[in-house]
Amino acid sequence: SDDVYNALVDLRAALSTDLRTRALALPNLTQYTPQATLPAVVIAHRLYGDATRADEICVRNNVRHPGALRGGMALEVLSE
Fold first, then answer.
1. 36: three-class secondary structure by DSSP
2. Cβ–Cβ under 8 Å, residues 43 and 57
3. pTM of this prediction?
4. pLDDT on residue 1
5. Which helix (H) or strand (E) element contains residue 31?
6. Which pLDDT value is given to residue 33?
7. Of the candidates 77, 10, 9, 2, the residue with the CA atom closest to the CA atom of residue 40
8. What is the SS3 assignment for 25?
9. Is 2 helix (H, G, I), strand (E, B) or coil?
10. Which of 40, 51, 57, 64 could form a Cys-Cys staple with 45, CB 3.0–4.6 A?
11. d(CA 6, CA 14)
């Protein structure tokens, strides 16, 4: 019926608006290049103030050894 169709169109518009609003609040991907070789926990603490996010950096960048991220190599991180 027309009422159901109109309700679905309104729902779709509201959903689209809500998703766009939420997407603006999400952090973006950016690059960080440490000057020296450092452990992932140090980089996480410098970037986020939270050393527990070291695993996030390692997983995102396929780091084999989190104790030594080479200086001069660009890392993909979240901007926060």
1. coil
2. yes
3. 0.71
4. 82
5. strand 29-32
6. 96
7. 77
8. coil
9. helix
10. 51
11. 12
Interval 17-71: pLDDT, tens: 999 999 888 889 999 999 999 999 999 999 999 999 999 999 999 998 999 999 9
Query: Which residue is it, tokens 């960080």?
Result: 32
Strand 75-78 and strand 29-32: pairing? antiparallel
Distance CA 80, CA 56 (A): 13
Contact between residue 9 and residue 54 where contact means Cβ atoms under 8 Å apart: no
Burial 34-57 (b: 16+ CB within 10 A, else e): beeebebbebbbebbeeeebbeeb
